[in-house]
Amino acid sequence: MDVSLVVAGIAVAAFAAAQVGNEFQRRTVGLDYLAVPTRVPALVAKLASYAVIAAMLGFLAVLVAQAVVTPLAIGRASPPAA
C-alpha cells in the first residue's frame, strides 16, 4: 500500500511538471495572468477542470476495480463458521 501511494505521488508530480512545462513551451504561462487581472479566477478554472477530469478517471478506476474484484470474490469459498 505504501508503494502505491508513492507511485501515485510521483505520477501527480510528473503531471504537474508536464503541465507547467507545457505552458512555458507554448508561451501561454504569461497570457493567463495578463488577461486576468487577478490570478484567483485562472487558478480556480484550472482547479475545476482538473477536478472534473480526476473525478471521471477515479470513477473509471472504481468500475475497473469492481469488475476485477467481484468475480474473484464470488469464486472464493467463505470460511466455515466456527
From TrEMBL:
Keyword Membrane assigned: yes
Descriptive protein name: ABC-type multidrug transport system permease subunit
Transmembrane regions: 47-69
Assigned keywords, A-Z: Membrane, Transmembrane, Transmembrane helix
